[in-house]
Amino acid sequence: MKATEKIEIKSLLFSELQTELQGLAERSYRADQIVDWLYKKRVDSIEKMTDLPLSLRKRFADRFSFSKIDIVRVLGSRDTTRKFLFRLSDGNLIESVLIPASPALYGEKSDRQTICISTQVGCAYGCKFCASGLEGFSRNLCANEIVDQIIAIERASGEKIDNIVFMGMGEPLANLKNVIRAIRIINASWGLRIGARHITVSTSGLAPQIKKLADEPLQIRLAVSLHGATDEVRNQIMPINRRYNVETLLSACDYYVAHKKQRLTFEYILIAGVNDADTQAHLLAQHARRLSAKVNLIPYNAVEGLEWSRPSRNRQEKFLSILRAEGVPATLRREKGHDIDAACGQLRLQTSRQERRRAVPA
Ligand code: SF4
Predict the structure, then answer these.
(1) For the chain, which terminal residue's Cβ has fewer other Cβ atoms within 10 angstroms, N or C?
(2) Considering the domain boundaries, does residue 286 fall inside one?
(3) 133 CA to middle of ligand 1, Å?
(4) Is the pTM of this model over 0.85?
(5) Residue nearest to atom 3 of ligand 1 (CA)
(6) Which residue range(s) make up the domain with 197?
(7) What's the gap in Å between 211 CA and the centre of ligand 1?
(8) DSSP codes, 279-327
(9) Is 136 a member of any domain?
(10) What is the pLDDT of residues 212-242, one digit of tens each?
């Protein structure tokens, strides 16, 4: 970091803030005041921290930056899934989705307000059914940009968010350092105070990072985007499988379950003619039983420019019934957001393409 570069205040952990304040010869109780302004009162500038002396606020403003993200568009209505498109300070676009209380969200009854947040701008992993990877990877989000998605949605919606899923744009475990830092802030009693068991991180299958996450003390939940029960199917739709095949991935999951002593979830997007055969259901059941995992089936959301389609309702139900008959706790996700392009990356993709078209001289 350059000597003149400011520190983003919402990326600091409490102990780091205390250290920074010591460096400025300030009393440690100032740290309590500052996190109170940041995460309880939710002010949007250092100037508004009015119980700090003016001279101190000026020194803080010289030392710290204060990020915010701007809402570009919101799709959806109050009682349904709402999708938020944000512009970051460098102009990049990201998406988050607010999912209202649902009788069967992620396989469980839930009266919780959930948001699905992004961890990267774009994605390098190129899953064939996903819009987020269509324009490649730009950069990782910083911890404050991850936290800001929650704060901005709470402010705009008036809802108290109490469940977080890291399933938006990007591969969370490819940005593990910033994701862990953000989770600490989200979970902390001085931060957003959301319980670790109400925070779920998903991965497309980065086996070594799954083990690293297992070694973290946080009791967060893990969701593995399996989407195929064999290498043949996974290779077809998820390039990551050529690096970490199904067995390597399942071994990392074994490690995670053994260390965390908690049940993980397999996410499985049902795509017609690709991964919805009975044989896939039987093998998926075998993998799930090995790990005592739950399975969350998600009918595919069509993405403009991609070739896949969703199976018929009958096929979806048959797939579900095979899992259940084999003793696997499984749900078929009730659709939310199908009409507003809720699959990850689609709203950003449309908007960035429109903006580029507008920028091209006639
Ligand atoms: S599904 Fe996840 S990992 Fe795969 S391309 Fe989309 S954002 Fe990236």
Answers:
(1) C
(2) yes
(3) 6
(4) yes
(5) 171
(6) 70-356
(7) 19
(8) HHHHHHHHHHHHHT-EEEEEEPPP-TT----PPPHHHHHHHHHHHHHTT
(9) yes
(10) 999 999 999 999 999 999 999 999 999 999 9
